[in-house]
Fold these 3 entries.
Entry 1:
Amino acid sequence: MNIIGVGKVLPLKVNADSIKSGMKINGVSEPEDFDIKKYIKYKGLRSLTKATNLAIASISDAINDAGVKYNQHRPERIGVFVGSTLNPTDGALHFMSDVYETTADFVSPLKFSSTVLNNISGWASIVYGITGVNSTVISGNLSGIDALKMATEYINNNVIDVAIVTAVEGNEENSIYHLGNNIHNVKTITGAVTVIIEKNEDSYASIEKIYSFQHYEENREKIILKLEEEMKNKQFNNLIYGSSNNNDELISAYLRNSMVSQDINIINTAESIGTSNALSGFLKLITALELKEKTLIVETNEIGTDSILKINSKSKEVSL
């Protein structure tokens, strides 16, 4: 599967170079002066959540980047897949605040659509006139990569020809409250990253493998067993990991003791990405695109779904 377009809306200080160098983030890093009108003119977007507008904006960038490779496809053969985590709770908070603060008489019907789990992919389809399948994946740090995996399956099964895949986090009041209850010192990134994929071989990056599996508290070593299989094959130049959970130290310890890892460029993104949920995997992805070689991405949840993703980045310059 090949990447034909990339779009992003991120804080200026968050880019492939900052991630590779391990630059630390603190607090909530937000895109500066974000305004959806700079990306697209469409009536009614102001009533949507921040996450929805961030996703729509990054999709605009990705479509422009893909150009004719995207525009040649019919709307019914295009799919939209979004990876997100806490954004539906932000939408519900927006909608219900009027009820709590006044009465139900003041509830805005314009805000109701944002309470639906599939609202981001649905709105993206509406704004860009896409009539193919759209879906939202919520699976913690794996949300973006799981959405990417779902999109490749739809293309491989000939349901669609091209897919827009977005990872987004709005980090509004309700999301930050949740993060603060789990980690006292919040370190997270607000933004959206979009890739457009199809089978066309004329692209600047290819997705060679997406392998997903699950682990539980008592069998965390499963992550290492899967990573060890890839390390023995030695078919990649770079390794990117770091999901800001207890699995990071497990992976770090394995890499320190592995002779195979000495010939591999290893990047731990835990400090530079923080707890960025759905964005975590896609921030690793845009970093891999700039490395211009084969890169193995390891993304994990504290407990549950994990994934190993192999990217082969080629020659086209990517502005990240």
Entry 2:
Amino acid sequence: MTTNALWWCALGLLLALPSLAFAPVPLALPPEFWPELPARLVLRPDQGGHQPMWSWWATAWLHGSEAHLWRNLFGAGLILLMGTLSDVTPRDTLAWFIAWPLTHLGMLLEPSLTSYVGLSGVLHAGVVIVALANLHHPVRASHRVVGTVLLAWVAGKLFMENPWAHHLVLSEASAINVAPWAHLSGALAGALTWSAVHLGRPGRPKP
């Protein structure tokens, strides 16, 4: 494993592993009725910018069900694998780190939600960053196809979810109502942060 991949995986583990320390939170109830620690960590879009500083990061570690948690951990593992195989650069890792809180900042545009939890928004940011990395500095020419397919998948998924029309959608697989806006927010955060850290920088020489 390269040093670049180690940085990527270290960030991914920081994002994912603390989730194992928390039991699922009762999303059907307002956070005031949750256990004390999750209630202090959760992001509350209905309260606008009046959030504890740690909530911009820590809310990703909370989940609404065991299925929600394990599906997100599986997704995180896939993104770590994709990033490793793509030999993402430290700048790609930096983009994902910045996208973590930026994804949750975007959730303030969905003020109908009394709480938002989970990794899925930040995972969408990670997918977009891996896709752009494969297009900008692929290890092999064939990786550009991977980048194109990943971006097309994200775009198609967001179109199908229609976050402008659906505030919450029941996910039978995760056994909770999910917020499609989080996926859009994460995808945009990933694109913005990746573009910012790579502004004016050339890619790898063509393989």
Entry 3:
Amino acid sequence: MEPILSVEGLTKRFNQDKSSVLAVDNISFQLFSGDCLGIVGESSCGKSTTVNLITRLKDVDSGKIILNGIDITSAKGKSLHSVYQKMQMVFQFPQDSFNPHQKLNDAIIEPLINNGMSKREAKKQLPYLLDLVGLDLSLINNKYSYELSGGQCQRVAIARAIAIKPKILICDEATSALDVISQKQIVDLLKKLQKQFNLSIILITHDLSLVRQICNRVIVMYRGKIVEENSTNEILQNPQQEYTKLLIQSTV
């Protein structure tokens, strides 16, 4: 089986004062159709930088990103637009991911309009998209992001992300800003959508209990490097690296 996403030797440095920091250090991994891949590690280990490189929110210093067999490492303009048709992202703070002056109705259908659908047809998709994430149109109708709870707003963010039927959904600490009940609801929702649409998911998190619930594979990062990669069960039950063992112990 060919991977839907292949990352090869990805590297990124950031200048800091008079020195530079190697945020992502020559990492390689693959994502297959229907996978849920967890990328775990402590803060500043390179997790979020990795997905920012994959989604081309930041430029790559060296390495390759292959999406559906196409090299997107230097994608710009129309090429970058085609990347976002296949890959969407859900961020940590749901309210902050929306324009506070844009009604949520318009925010959800904006990707559809940007991809050529008329506004009239896009509006017809709203009830369906909201139903997918367990919300009713009456709840969000003519409202702004700050008028919803964190959990509700994250559901809206997921509805917007899946509107154009991407192949890959990247969740960057998508539950960490939510209360425990909302966290479980979002995890259950992601599992349902993954099964329904055969979504491939990359889950960026420091929460190993979350990884246990949804991921079938795990990458452990430390200081910009991948120090261990295996099935979720093997990582949690039989970790090989000392850092992985410490990470697991710290969450028990």
